[in-house]
Amino acid sequence: MNYDLLIATSLLIVGFLYASVGHGGASGYLAVLSIFAVPVVVYKPMILVLNMLVAGIGFYQFYRAGYFKWKLLWPFLITSIPLAFIGSRVSLPEGNFNLLLGLALLLPVIRLLGFGPKEKQEQRELNLTTALLWGIVIGFLSGLLNIGGGIFLSPLLVLLAWANAKQAAAVSSLFIFFNSLAGLLGSSFTTYTISNSAYIWFAAALVGGTAGAYFGSQRFAQTTVRYLLTAVLGIASVKLIFFMQ
């Protein structure tokens, strides 16, 4: 199979899977591109733009389905947006960046394997102070790692019983959009170049994300294809942690 087509197909699948749970997919796209050893200079700006588009589509679908609650989002945004901007301006040595990203990818792997927080029957009211503090942490990590932060926010909302799975997906999708925008504004991309292949990958991931957002919000529960996504993220995490230092 053509190299570009193989990458595009992988990004389409990852975009579908991530968007089905309300995520923009940045960590998944980074995982795929790291597996194929694509240089960062080719794709880094594209990841954040793509993250915004897919997350925006996901938000629209989950909002239409009635799962969005503004009160679960705004406290996180207040502190996360400025910290995402600051984090995006921090330059890490490539080895340290790869290590942190690899460790961050372990979180969705653990969640997808069923070891993360379970959805609780009784929900609690959001604690404002706790949400503001978590917004600082997640926002900074989002900017630093060039992701939207949904892989951190979704399990947190479920773990603290502030939201069920689909409410968390709706909130995370809009959270990802704004944090990706802050990271994009804070980054300097003068040293990055976009190849012709990157546009093909962009289109494939966007198609997958659009379809995933629709099916995730309207058609099915998030259980059927999670092991494929787990494998992709797991391989990328191991590669980043142990072989790219």
From TrEMBL:
Primary localization: membrane
Superkingdom, natural source: Bacteria
InterPro entries: TM_pro_TauE-like, TSUP/Inactive_protease-like
Subcellular location: Cell membrane; Membrane
Transmembrane portions of the chain: 29-60, 72-91, 97-114, 126-147, 167-186, 198-215, 227-244
Entries under Pfam families matching the protein: TauE (PF01925)
Gene Ontology cellular component annotations, sorted alphabetically: plasma membrane
Keyword line: Cell membrane, Membrane, Transmembrane, Transmembrane helix
Topology versus the membrane: Multi-pass membrane protein
Keyword Transmembrane helix belongs to the record: yes
Family classification: Belongs to the 4-toluene sulfonate uptake permease (TSUP) (TC 2.A.102) family.
Protein name: Probable membrane transporter protein
Lineage: Bacteria, Pseudomonadati, Bacteroidota, Cytophagia, Cytophagales
